Amino acid sequence: MPTPLEKAWRNPDSMKARILAAARDIFGEYGFHGATTRMIAQAAGIDISTLYYHWGEKKDLYEAVVIDINEGLRQKLVEVEKKIKGLPLTERLEIAIDELMDYLFENPQISNMTLFRYFTKTRHESGLDVKVPEFISDIAYSMGLSRDKKNISPEAKLKVLTIMNAMHNFISGQRFFIPMLKIERKDYIRMVKETLKFSYVPAYFELESSRTNSLTL
Questions:
Q1: Is the predicted pLDDT of residue 18 greater than 90, yes or no?
Q2: Domain holding 106: CATH number?
Q3: What is the pTM of this model?
Q4: Shortest CA distance to 38 belongs to which of 26, 28, 29?
Q5: What does the alpha-carbon distance between residue 109 and residue 131 come to, in Å, rounded to a whole number?
């Protein structure tokens, strides 16, 4: 029997999908503990009994949202990997930054929920957290930080986490940073991409060059 989430995926116009979309926004804005089912029901334009009928308890809906955003991110990473495969490291990183930042800016709930889940004292514990290391390992392999896709070193994972944390903070902090910088959102997005490339592309290029030199010695 398909799960409520699978039913929502199959029918994007269904009530389940409508509630899921509202839950993404509310959990992304307030986190698990700050959000309530009443807030989600109000955002979806329904009564709370309808929400419980389609999704059950708050924890069930929250975990469905986590799976939903993880699956969307996974699909995006697969798409990006296909685009950058075989390219020089510098080009791979620049394309990946452009693609992922566009995706995250379009789906800010991902960054907001990531920061709520992993960097606050009131985080909601979940067995779904095991998916995150898989994403980090996939990115590390795509970036050429490891030759073995099944055995990614802690050092390689930390290099990926450095970029991902910067990305998430730029996304989640945009409502604070944009007024502070006194710029338009479109200019902020462009400048964030440029800043990430300025900060990380040279470092990765140096890493690749040193690795190549060591192999030729």
A1: yes
A2: 1.10.357
A3: 0.85
A4: 26
A5: 17
